[in-house]
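just leaving the lab so this will be short. below you get a single protein, a line of residues and a line of whole numbers that encode the local backbone shape. id like you to explain what the token line says about the fold, in plain words if possible. thanks a lot i owe you, the record is right below:

…
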Amino acid sequence: MLHITTASPVGEIRESRRENIFFSDEDRKKFLVELTALIDRIKSHPDYAKVGMILCHNGVVRGTSRDGQRVSGLTLTVDREALDAILAEQRQRPGIVDILVELQEGSLKVGDDVMFIVVAGDLRDHVIPVLEDTLNAIKKRVTHKTEHFV
């Protein structure tokens, strides 16, 4: 299953004295609705009775690059065929019931959600490595980003 949406403007992001990013109430509700919808899809899976763990990842646009430069946002493109191949491969691993991914594509601002990954499976020994491997494969082979520096 794959759901890719185009990024849209989100509510105001405020920064505290410690530079922590806080989301507006509107953004928090949007996040909860999207993540809840993915988890609900997992819970409606015909093999849900086999699930003992649902693990979620929410990637967001950081305010700095890996080398510490400030960024105002990024532009993200997605290779859908590569994503389909990764999900097909990872879903075959032992104990995995399903994996859902939602990626935002286009122009994103600091604090915007970039990616949701939800992995459901029988045991944490199966689920945790699959989430990590899926995330790393997506970052390496599926998403291509251009950072916009301040």
Helices lie at 25-43, 80-91, 124-141. Confidence is low (pLDDT under 50) at residues 1-22. Residues 2-8+23-149 form a domain with the Aldehyde Oxidoreductase; domain 3 fold (CATH 3.90.1170.40). DSSP finds three helices and eight strands in the chain.
